[in-house]
Amino acid sequence: MNQQGNEPQLSASESTRLKEDLEESGYAILRNVVPKGPLRELNDRLIEAYESSEKFEGGGTIVGHLNCFPGESARFVYDALHDYGIVGAVLALREGKSNEILSRVNWNLPDSSAQHYHMDSAFANDWIICNIAIVDVNPENGPMDVLPGTHREFYPYWRFALERKAKLSTLLAMEQGDVLVRTSNLWHRGTPNRTKAARPLMSLTFGEPSAREGDPFVLNGSGITFYPNWYGNATRKDILRERIEKALPVTRSAGRFVKSIVRPHGYDGY
Ligand SMILES: O=C(O)CCC(=O)C(=O)O
Ligand SMILES: [Fe+2]
Q1: What integer pLDDT is reported at residue 220 of this predicted model?
Q2: How much helix, strand and coil, in percent to the nearest 5, is found in the chain?
Q3: What is the average pLDDT across 151-176?
Q4: Residue burial 151-171, b: 16+ Cβ < 10 Å; e: rest
Q5: 12-209+218-262, which class in CATH?
Q6: pTM above the 0.85 mark?
Q7: 166 with 147: CB under 8 angstroms?
Q8: Minimal-distance CA residue to ligand 1 atom 10
Q9: What's the gap in Å between 6 CA and the centre of ligand 1?
Q10: To test ligand 1's pocket by mutation, which of 29, 65, 134 has the most ligand atoms within 8 angstroms of CB?
Q11: Domain spans of the chain?
Q12: CA 255 from chain center: how many Å?
């Protein structure tokens, strides 16, 4: 991607608000950035691709959260963020750091469960995520739940739990075309989708370590590919684990709690 030269910029007031909100809360929402018509078409394409894709067992299908590379069909979203000045603002915030881009969609299936709260990164190696609402996101179809301010210091899981950080729970309603800009150090989770339609939420990440140089919209071919979110699906054990955690989410939190004490990872994410 061409990230050099004079990028379009946000207005001075939007730029100040973005910086302040990111610092204070760990996220900011910019409204009505991406045009709705092309987003509707993108959603239609995603639905079509999902219906015709080969289904796998486990790999997030039990808890109801999948990932997807949207390929070429999502390039216009990057262009809209670029033209609005969001790309320029993110690059300015990350001056001197790596800014390779990854483009994905979080595909929250009907009847999904809540994810566990997590950060997307290791604390010391943060990046920026722009989440774009491909459809309206409301309390029914699985809004993202964020815990404002939790990006400011590192919480090992035992502290996260004992200090009851989950009380900060804030469900982010978004309209189609809105953009959530957040730091990867902000604790958050996906929530249950109680509707009959999947809820797609796009993400463009800047500086994620697994991102490779080159065009993020031709990654894995330029088509649409669905793949597992967190849970593996290589073995029966992976699938069993996902079933158990769906039925009894406390098994995961208890495991994380103990692990964060006996085997602290320092600044690791998840
Ligand atoms: O789909 C969402 O709302 C959030 C998903 C997420 O945070 C993740 O998979 O890391
Ligand atoms: Fe996440």
Answers
A1: 73
A2: 30, 20, 50
A3: 96
A4: beebbbbeebbeeebeeeeee
A5: mainly beta
A6: yes
A7: yes
A8: 120
A9: 32
A10: 65
A11: 12-209+218-262
A12: 23
Is 70 exceeded by the pLDDT of residue 270? no
- How many A from CA of 15 to the centre of ligand 2? 25
Decide whether any atom of ligand 1 lies within 6 Å of the 229 Cβ: yes
Model confidence at 212, pLDDT cuts 50, 70, 90, reads confident
Please indicate whether residue 108, judged by its CB atom, sits closer than 6 Å to ligand 1: yes
Sequence-distant contacts of 162-171: CB under 8 A, at least 24 apart: 165/117, 166/117, 169/145, 170/145, 170/146, 171/139, 171/143, 171/144, 171/145
Q: Which of 27, 67, 115, 184 to mutate to test the pocket of ligand 1 (most atoms within 8 A of CB)?
A: 115
The length of the chain is 270
What gap in Å lies between CA 171 and CA 190, rounded to an integer? 10
Q: CA-CA distance, 41 to 225, in Å (whole number)?
A: 17
Ligand 2: centre distance to CA 228 (Å): 13
pLDDT(2) > 50: no
Query: Quick check: CB of 188 below 6 Å from ligand 1?
Result: yes
Backbone angles phi, psi at 13, to 5 degrees: -70, -40
Instruction: Locate the ligand 1 atom nearest the alpha carbon of residue 120 and give its number.
Output: 10
